[in-house]
Specification:
3 strands, alpha+beta, about 90 residues, globular, 3-stranded antiparallel beta sheet, single chain
Length: about 90
């Protein structure tokens, strides 16, 4: 439905706003819209902060007869050097 480049810090806010709008158009209630927007915002913020940017893609698909929101956040960063250490705190 929509894709955004993540190049600048304000793109994080833009992605959050667009995620909420798409969720609203798909019929999610206001509380779920907020949850979706918050989750997207956190992932996009990480892509921007740690990988220097990326791309956010929002869509929808049918799942068990209901519309489901999809978000795919991609980055071109180098990755985490030692993920086990990060996961252990």
């Amino acid at each position: 439905l929509l894709s955004l480049e993540l190049r600048y810090e304000h793109d994080v806010v833009h992605a959050r706003q667009r995620a909420r709008q798409v969720a609203e158009l798909l019929g999610f209630d206001p509380q779920d819209q907020t949850r979706i927007a918050t989750a997207v915002s956190e992932i996009v913020r990480n892509a921007f902060r740690y990988a220097g940017g990326g791309r956010a893609e929002f869509g929808a698909r049918l799942e068990e007869g209901r519309q489901a929101f999809t978000a795919c956040i991609r980055d071109q960063g180098p990755g985490i050097a030692d993920p086990e250490t990060v996961l252990q705190g």
